[in-house]
Amino acid sequence: MTLWDPRLATTGRPAGEPGLLRNFVGGRFEPSARTFAKISPVTGERVFEVAEADGSTVDAAVTAARAALRGPWGRLGERERAAVLRRVADELDRRFDDLVTAEVADTGKPMSQARTLDVPRGAANFRAFADIVCAAPTESFTTVTPTGGRALNYAVRKPAGVVAVIVPWNLPLLLLTWKVAPALACGNAVVVKPSEETRPPRRCWPR
Predict the structure, then answer these.
(1) Can you tell me the distance from the alpha carbon of 201 to that of 108, in angstroms, rounded to the nearest whole number?
(2) CB atoms within 10 A of CB 22
(3) What domains are defined for the chain?
(4) For residues 79 and 73, what is the distance between their CA atoms, to the nearest angstrom?
(5) DSSP assignment, residue 202?
(6) Element (H, E) at 21
(7) Domain Aldehyde dehydrogenase spans what residues (predicted)?
(8) What does the alpha-carbon distance between residue 171 and residue 198 come to, in Å, rounded to a whole number?
(9) Distance from the first to the final alpha carbon of the chain
């Protein structure tokens, strides 16, 4: 698993020009024929150009996700997947200040909220679902068969496959972790579509 890095996602541009945020597919940043401007909800300035995903980008993302399920990721057990989720949480902690800065620029919410809610809760979600998947019980019970024997019935949990995640505009990082973390914990591969119109709830607008 490769954690998204905005420093790698941005391409070089002339001084003073916004960077370009590219799509991340199959472990690589992909180009795009079309872009749109990410506008600061506070200042109205253009803070980034964002690569627009088209149908071919989505197809490539789904193909990469299916390949991950057929590859090493699909062969990991619960405890191994939990270890990956905890490493993600550790990386979120390590880059805490970077993520706070990104959240504030993206949503316009107060820095105090990003520091106490969005980023720490995002890391906590990965740890929480890592703990849950390791401790989740498996249901089993016995029944008497028509011939008088006894049968053991038990549940076998398997990944659903490729999971599509749509992230709302108001809590882009936190709500992403609430969806991506449990999907990965259960062994799925994930394709994420964030909102292109991220903005803070009304109560977060600067006065």
Answers:
(1) 10
(2) 20
(3) 6-198 (3.40.605.10)
(4) 12
(5) G
(6) strand 19-21
(7) 32-198
(8) 8
(9) 41
Question: Residue 25 forms beta bridges with which residues?
Answer: 28
75-131 residue pLDDT tens: 999 999 999 999 999 999 999 999 999 898 888 889 999 999 999 999 999 999 999
* One-letter-per-residue 3-state SS of 73-118: HHHCCHHHHHHHHHHHHHHHHHCHHHHHHHHHHHHCCCHHHHHHHH
Q: What is the pTM for the complete model shown?
A: 0.82
How buried is residue 139: exposed, middle or buried, by Cβ count under 10 Å (0-12/13-18/19+)?
Answer: exposed
- Residue corresponding to tokens 């108001």: 170
Token duo for residue 181: 């973390």
How large is the C-alpha radius of gyration of the chain? 21
- Report which DSSP code applies to 131: H
Distance of CA 143 to the CA centre of its chain: 42
